[in-house]
Design brief:
This protein is an alpha/beta fold and 1013 residues long. It contains 36 helices and 34 strands.
Length: 1013
């Protein structure tokens, strides 16, 4: 082999030296010319530049998948693989000749470098590392070394989200490229994507997206290192290892420099660095890249150009021929050679490839590129099908090809699906461009090109949709052009800048949509604020004139105007007067802000005054004086509910006039609570809960707002949740009693049912549930109003401070039977006067002075002999069930309930679990021996003349008077006295106060006197 470099010029140097530009200028100076480029994408770029110079009719484009061949074209632009081995063109140029050392494609570049020459001029363009090997292989070659037009500097390591604009981020796998592009879209608005697997049309569209400034970032593989002219200021390596077709390996310094050299164009300097998980480059590597000093290429990949088609075996042997001269090394088996190795083992192929013509046709078929990146055996199967058609039919079976093309002709699916279809159609585009392979090649060239273009456009659209925020990219482009951005606001609060939705205006707060971040977000927000300034003033005026119906207060304390939040409530010194905090941007200032604040405060005050009218009126009451005014103040501070035990002394000290004046304000004096029934409704309870939560930082406490639906559903009692904040039960109008909570007004009705049972005197008609005047049993009426079971009833009564004595059912029945004759005799003489319930007008005060049997006396109740009598209703079901089963069963004991006392605690040593849970608020629930007066559970009031049950002639067991002169046991204990057991002490009678003749008690007393007469 005789090689010569005569007439050959090597233009060598790093990137950005203008080598390709120089080659184009030299080619158009000749009559004819041909230039070979490493990528179809780069060939397209050079073709476009030549068309601009000499006209479309003078330039041909020839690649493996595309042919544009005008008649009598003077210049041809080809990929290196598509270049002819011989030409009569005046000028020949081969770009990126350093690829002659590439393991996969190197032998093709080597062949063109060694054999292809122009009649007048031949240019070899590439890296300076090719100088020694070119001078060795081509003696007499003229070498021109060109310096880089700009400087390249190392900038170290930076996070992906902090990379500067106009950056190309380089990775070597599709998954990594997609992941980085997705991250940049979320953080910086979007990125263009360039991979070798994309079709040239898609890559061109993505590069144009970046070049035109629609996005500021490009994420690519090393494909950008092959001469693509990009406006890149910085190159960041997100990976420094790649798979070269045979193994994973680190990139060598020359390869890193080839990619890094894309930074900076013409006279503008560029920078490079690392990002992601790549370690910073060491100083030696940085210096070599910056100064472009690399190890020279020592050998070029070579494969024989002389193929022996005599037989399959001869062809295979010729491919294994060693290089004839030094400086060359036999290339590893390429895709075509691998396919041939597989096909030579197929019996049907061996039967067909029997002549030199057929062997040559087989080798031509093996040149089909593996665009699909599938296994070599699968690729060989496709070649086998095509070869069989070519030999047997003379052309490829067009029915088979039509079926394959039809399968790829779909634009639905995501990125990976479309990429696979493009690879499929590129295969058939190549087939349609092979001379002599099809009966109607023109038809199939047009059809496959059309499908590939359509798929490429769809892929570009999917890439752009996934990795580019078009709204942000357009805005950023306008900002770089220093254009004034136009903003507008729609009726529903959508804010548009340059026709793109950039945020939402809710009330007086503007929020940018996701993806608008970083320094560019300030410019977008500034443009939007110009429109917002006028809108804020207009909205403030509309809100100032709005009616109360346009405003609403939510359970979270947010005030909304036409659905948009404009303020929130916060705690203040007065629970009924919360503070209003506007929810607005800084742009709401001056009079507009004052008007909004004043209107919202006016609404909040009106809303509280309307929903909590009884409480608001009470806070402003001027007809209350002294203790009544103080009690009203406490009631307001406690949002409408007081435990009577906590204010027992104040209630006792109230005279009739004070009580009457407080009743006029809707206050009820119950046995257990001082409360306002009008507030025990869902709307007031919800607002009360909110006000308390604001004051006590309770909006996030468990159970907030969960009890309001229970109250709205009309439930009288509910199973308690130990996780809930205890105060929420009281705020919703419930009394927490261990395992159950009962509505406050229902508890007062329960007190009305219990009161006559404890007032009953043996010898008079016995109401249902009465036992001996000191104890009682639970009745159906009690269970009904509470919506509770007998077990629930037991918990509720214990929670209220009652204690139970267990008596056998037969003993209770006998005792009640003994009481029946006396009650019947009394009933025949005097009509029953004891009502079963006390009306709301009397409240619990009607029984404040009534007699109360002490605990000691209750324990000494005599038990009569067994006799036939009815078992109390609460215990009847168990006995009935046992009877129904037909089995003798011991009757369930009867629980006799009595008011509790300190003596019970001393005797029992500890409280029942339900009693411990029963409303521990205030810590004073059972102080002073529980201060239980029977139906009022430890509270004792003053005696009244004419009150029911106040009998001065009634004697105790020790002969001393009972009733009004008996001091309260709990009070004596608080004063240091000993607990009373079986003996009572008397105290001087109180000075009787004149009775209001208009009061219900005076009328009741007068009615009794008339009945006696």
């Amino acid at each position: 082999m005789i090689l010569s470099g005569r007439g050959v010029t090597a233009v060598l140097g790093p990137t950005n030296t203008g080598k390709t530009h120089y080659a184009i200028e030299r080619m158009v100076a000749h009559e004819t010319g041909i230039i070979g480029l490493p990528l179809r994408l780069l060939a397209r770029e050079v073709y476009t530049r030549l068309v601009e110079k000499v006209g479309q009719h003078n330039v041909a484009l020839v690649t493996g998948e595309e042919k544009i061949t005008p008649h009598m074209a003077r210049f041809s632009v080809c990929t290196v693989e598509a270049m002819p081995r011989e030409t009569r063109a005046s000028f020949v140029a081969i770009d990126e000749v350093q690829l002659a050392g590439d393991l996969e494609r190197g032998h093709i570049f080597t062949d063109r470098v060694l054999h292809l020459r122009g009649r007048d001029e031949t240019l070899l363009l590439g890296a300076a590392t090719m100088k020694p090997i070119l001078e060795q292989l081509l003696p007499g070659i003229h070498v021109i070394e060109r310096p880089r037009l700009s400087q390249l500097f190392y900038s170290g390591s930076k996070k992906i989200t902090r990379l500067p604009q106009r950056t190309a981020i380089v990775a070597f796998s599709a998954d990594e490229v997609y992941a980085i592009a997705e991250l940049i879209r979320r953080q910086r608005g979007g990125a263009a994507v360039v991979l070798g697997a994309l079709s040239p049309r898609t890559r061109n569209a993505q590069v144009a997206l970046y070049q035109e400034g629609d996005v500021e970032y490009l994420v690519a593989t090393d494909a950008i290192g092959m001469g693509l002219n990009l406006d890149v200021d910085h190159v960041a390596f997100a990976q420094d290892r790649k798979f070269d077709g045979y193994q994973f390996r680190n990139l060598n310094p020359a390869e890193l420099a080839q990619i890094a050299g894309r930074a900076g164009r013409h006279m503008r300097d560029g920078t490079f660095g690392v990002t992601g998980r790549v370690d910073p480059f060491d100083d030696e590597l940085v210096q070599r890249i910056e100064t472009h000093h690399f190890d020279p290429v020592r050998v070029l990949q070579w494969r024989t150009p002389r193929f022996d088609y005599a037989s399959l075996q001869s062809l295979r042997q010729s491919l294994d021929a060693p290089p004839p001269i030094g400086g060359l090394t036999r290339a590893l088996p390429a895709v075509d050679q691998q396919a041939l190795e597989h096909l030579s083992r197929y019996p049907d192929i061996r039967e067909l490839a029997t002549t030199p013509e057929r062997v040559e046709k087989l080798w031509e078929a093996c040149a089909l590129p593996d665009y699909r990146r599938i296994a070599p055996a699968q690729h060989a199967d496709l070649i086998s099908t095509l070869y069989a058609d070519l030999v047997k039919r003379g052309t490829v079976n067009e029915d088979f090809m039509a079926d394959q093309v039809r399968r790829a002709d779909r634009t639905d699916g995501e990125i990976d699906t479309l990429s696979a279809r493009i690879a499929q159609i590129r295969t058939w585009t190549y087939v349609s461009n092979r001379p002599g392979w099809l009966a109607d090649p023109t038809h199939w060239q047009e059809k496959t090109r059309e499908i590939e273009d359509r798929l490429s456009d769809a892929l570009h659209e999917r890439l752009t949709k996934r990795f580019v925020d078009r709204r942000t990219s357009v805005l950023m482009k306008r900002l770089r052009e220093n254009a004034m951005l136009e903003a507008e606001i729609s009726v529903n609060g959508d804010v548009f800048v340059e026709g793109h939705h950039v945020g939402q205006l809710a009330g007086f707060r503007f929020t940018l949509v996701a993806g608008t971040e970083g320094p560019d977000a300030k410019a977008v927000q500034a443009a939007a604020q110009k429109a917002l300034a006028l809108e804020f003033e207009a909205r403030a005026a509309r809100l100032h004139a709005a009616g109360n119906a346009d405003l609403a207060l939510g359970s979270d304390g947010t005030v909304r105007w036409l659905g948009d939040p404009v303020a929130r409530l916060a705690a203040s010194d007065h629970v009924m007067r919360p503070r209003v905090i506007l929810l607005s941007d800084e742009q709401l200032t001056g009079n507009a802000r004052d008007h909004v604040a004043a209107r919202v405060e006016r609404f909040v005050n009106h809303h509280i005054a309307t929903v909590l009218k009884p409480l608001d009126d009470l806070s402003r009451a001027e007809d209350l004086q002294g203790l009544a005014k103080g009690l009203a103040f406490q009631l307001v501070e406690n949002l409408g509910v007081l435990f009577r035990r906590d204010v027992a002394d104040d209630v006792k000290a109230l005279d009739q006039d004070a009580r009457a004046s407080m009743r006029k304000h809707g206050i009820r004096f119950g046995a257990y609570h001082i409360f306002m029934p009008a507030l025990l409704k869902p709307a007031p309870a919800e607002l009360i809960t909110l006000l308390w939560a604001l004051k006590n930082d309770g909006l996030d406490k468990p159970g907030y707002g969960d009890l309001i639906p229970v109250l709205a559903a009309g439930r009288t009692s509910v199973v308690t949740d130990p996780a809930f904040e205890r105060a929420f039960y009281k705020l919703a109008g419930f009394r927490f009693l261990g395992k159950r909570a009962v509505r406050i007004d229902i508890l007062e009705r329960l007190a009305d049912l219990i009161r006559p049972l404890l007032q009953w005197k043996p010898g008079t008609p016995r109401p249902d549930g009465a036992y001996d005047g000191r104890r009682f049993t639970a009745t159906t009426a009690m269970l009904s109003i509470l919506g509770a079971t007998p077990d629930d009833m037991e918990e509720i009564l214990k929670g209220l401070g009652y204690r139970a004595d267990s008596v056998k059912a037969e003993e209770a029945a006998a005792f009640l039977a003994a009481q029946a004759p006396a009650a019947a005799a009394a009933g025949s003489e005097t009509p029953a006067e004891t009502p079963t319930e006390t009306s709301d007008e009397h409240d619990a005060d009607a029984a404040e002075g009534e007699a109360e049997a002490p605990a000691a006396a209750a324990e000494q109740v005599p038990v009569a002999e067994p006799a036939e009598a009815a078992v109390p209703v609460a215990e009847a079901p168990a006995a009935a069930e046992a009877a129904a089963d037909g089995e003798p069963a011991e009757a369930k004991p009867v629980l006799l309930w009595r008011p509790g006392s300190r003596h019970d605690n001393q005797r029992q040593g500890h409280r029942h679990g339900g009693e411990r849970q029963g409303d521990r608020q205030g810590q004073g629930e059972r102080r002073g021996g529980e201060r239980n007066r029977g139906q009022q559970a430890g509270e004792r009031g003053e005696r009244r003349e004419g009150g029911r049950g106040g009998r001065p002639d009634q004697k105790g067991r020790d002969g001393k008077p009972q009733g009004g002169n008996r001091p309260d046991r709990g009070e004596r204990n608080e004063r240091g006295g000993k607990p009373q057991q079986a003996k009572f002490e008397a105290r001087p009678p109180r000075k009787e106060k004149p009775i209001d003749p208009d009061s219900p008690f005076a009328k009741l007393a007068a009615l009794k006197e008339q009945m006696k007469k």
